[in-house]
């Protein structure tokens, strides 16, 4: 079973997260409606089971809640893929959403890196500051120890741009974690 349960408690957030790379229930409660919607889209399109409960210092703003959720999701992802044998390792995907088009490419490499290229015409989507998208993706990529490239090719609506990025990331990850029958680690170095 490729799954993990991670808890993280700081003075700013208290997070409990369960991830199953092969599917399962989706229950999201971060206290930020739009962020819940993005995580739900991420889980649905990645075909992941994801249960997240976050109590964050939203009286400050949403930064700690969003970034720390990325940290915990990344740690869970790394734990669920403790052995990287028999996975495809790479995945890339385009997602259109009305006028917006987003692209994601991932390498489950053990080398954390993020390239993020997106502009948001509107600063906010409900209670979510769109600038938090890069913070979430950076925290996720570095803690999952993956290389992640995300690009908004174009778009006029920040809701559509943001959602297309989350969905493209999920689809790329779904392809990368897909199991094959090779029992081989896809690396010329012999280690990821």
UniProtKB/TrEMBL annotation:
It is found in: Cytoplasm. NCBIfam families: PRK00951.2-1, PRK00951.2-4. PANTHER family: IMIDAZOLEGLYCEROL-PHOSPHATE DEHYDRATASE, IMIDAZOLEGLYCEROL-PHOSPHATE DEHYDRATASE HIS7. One of its GO terms (cellular component) is cytoplasm. This is Imidazoleglycerol-phosphate dehydratase. The gene is hisB. Keywords: Amino-acid biosynthesis, Cytoplasm, Histidine biosynthesis, Lyase. It catalyses: D-erythro-1-(imidazol-4-yl)glycerol 3-phosphate = 3-(imidazol-4-yl)-2-oxopropyl phosphate + H2O. Its main location: cytoplasm. SUPFAM superfamilies: Ribosomal protein S5 domain 2-like (SSF54211). Its EC number is 4.2.1.19. Pathway: Amino-acid biosynthesis; L-histidine biosynthesis; L-histidine from 5-phospho-alpha-D-ribose 1-diphosphate: step 6/9. It comes from Ruminococcus bromii.
């Amino acid at each position: 079973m490729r799954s993990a349960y991670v808890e993280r408690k700081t003075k700013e957030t208290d997070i409990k997260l369960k991830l199953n790379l092969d599917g399962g229930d989706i229950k999201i409660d971060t206290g930020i409606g739009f962020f819940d919607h993005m995580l739900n889209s991420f889980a649905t399109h990645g075909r992941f089971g994801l249960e997240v409960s976050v109590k964050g210092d939203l009286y400050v703003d949403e930064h700690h809640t969003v970034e720390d959720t990325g940290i915990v999701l990344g740690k869970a992802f790394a734990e669920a893929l403790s052995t990287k044998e028999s996975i495809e390792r790479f995945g890339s995907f385009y997602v259109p959403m009305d006028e917006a088009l987003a692209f994601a490419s991932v390498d489950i490499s053990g080398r954390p890196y993020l390239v993020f290229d997106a502009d948001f015409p509107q600063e906010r989507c409900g209670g979510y500051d769109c600038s938090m998208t890069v913070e979430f993706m950076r925290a996720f990529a570095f803690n999952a120890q993956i290389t992640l490239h995300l690009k908004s090719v174009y778009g006029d609506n920040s809701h559509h741009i943001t959602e297309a990025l989350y969905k493209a990331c999920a689809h790329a990850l779904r392809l990368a974690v897909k199991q094959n029958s090779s029992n081989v680690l896809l690396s010329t170095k012999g280690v990821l």
